[in-house]
Amino acid sequence: MALLSKKDTNLILDPLADNNPITIQVLGICSALAITAELQASVVMAISVLFVLGVGNVVISLLRNIIPTKIRIIVQLIVVATLVIIVDQVLKAFAYELSKTLSVFVGLIITNCIIMGRFEAFALGNGPWKAFLDGIGNALGYGIILIIVGFFRELLGSGTLFGFKVFGDPVTRTGLYATGYENNGFMIIPPAALIVVGIIIWVQRSRNRALIEEN
Amino acid sequence: MLEHIELFFKSIFIDNMVFAVFLGMCSYLAVSKKVATAVGLGAAVIFVLAVTVPLNWLLDQYLLRDGALVWLGPEYADYNLSFLSFILFIATIATMVQLVEIVVEKFSPALYNSLGIFLPLIAVNCAILGGSLFMQSREIETLGLAFNYGVSSGIGWFLAILAIAAIREKIRYSNVPAPLRGLGITFIITGLMGIGFQSFGGMLTGGDEATAAVEETTAEKIEENKTKVKEEIDEKEISFNDLIKEEE
């Protein structure tokens, strides 16, 4: 496909595994952990970050030659805050229940280190198309981790996926619950997210020995 | 007085910024390799929170809330500028951090040197913005309580980063599996500390509310919240229809 050169496809694919913003670059952890008790919240958060990072990267890249160095953090904050306000208002208008679940974490996308990190590391030094691809790639890498954590937490903790009861009804004891299976309440409390991400890091670094930290 | 004490202990132990709501995780993970640097960053976070949360409370109270502009005149009672919260909060935080940096540099160069790069970095620390946003969403009632909330959230974050730094220093000589070394084991240890902090859930009120706190995290409570929100929406739709009928 002539539309994306090899380097461009790498911009999208690298953050999905080898340069993952959460597990390798250690950015954007806060929201990755707090809202992943439900898969639906994780997906919506991933889409929100995709929008903010994609559009934000393009805007900063277009402005990169005009922004004076001294106030660039302020300019970046303004761009991100505006985009996040848009996302927040859209969520409140079209998915009110979900915005209540996400509560302040939509606002915290502003201080999500991935966004500021990619602005500084990439958008300020590259053209708009590359910046757009880089934003999409990093947001997808972030989204994958969120979806994996949300998937396990919701499935094991509530027996549902997207609200659909997958294992049967726990109250009337149908399906898997008839055998005596119980939902794992540990998966719903906040610390479970930390442990699931720790295990993801374990798996990722076992498969790619180059990522192991030297002491 | 009692509500001050309650808010103080609640914000440090039960609603701990790191273990309950995961704010400030990036700098928490990055700076916790040595206890000395962790103490410096923790102190800076307490200071900035103590300054920005009350300031943002004032902004919220007299400018942003539903009906906040009523002091300008009764015709402004319907204005709800809360959609501007994000941009105004982050603007105050960035300005205050800059101001604090200038003041500290002028009056205590020793402190300024020991804080180093951390002070400007705090402006984008989600713990700071998170403190203000939670203050707004929990509808903290007075300026004193807002200041209390700022300081105690900061102390909670400080305790968390101090603990993890101390533990990371100690496990440097432990036999951690290679893929878990560094970041992975820190996540798992933080998770275990979070479980430990959950034990504070019954601290303030003893038995009954302790079970309520556990219930809140089960799926049933999530369902309850959903139906409550649906009812809220239905209510608003009904009143909107009434408005239309009135105009006809």
Keywords:
heterodimer; A: 215 residues; mainly alpha; two-stranded antiparallel ribbon; 9 helices; 2 strands; 60% helix; globular; B: 248 residues; 11 helices; 72% helix
Tell me about this structure.
The complex is a heterodimer of chains A (215) and B (248). Chain A is mainly α. Chain A is built from nine helices and two strands; from the N terminus they run ααααααααββα. Chain A has a two-stranded antiparallel sheet. In chain A, helix 3 packs antiparallel against helix 4 and helix 4 packs across helix 5. In chain A, 45% of the residues are buried. Helix content of chain B is 72%, strand content 0%. The longest helix of chain B is centred in the N-terminal third of the chain and has 30 residues, at 35-64. Chain B is mainly α. Chain B has helices at residues 2-14, 25-31, 35-64, 85-107, 109-115, 118-121, 126-137, 143-170, 183-198, 207-215, 219-247. In chain B, helix 1 runs parallel beside helix 8. Residues 207-217 of chain B have low confidence and may be disordered. At the A-B interface, helix 2, helix 4, helix 5 and helix 9 of A face helix 2, helix 4, helix 7, helix 9 and helix 11 of B.
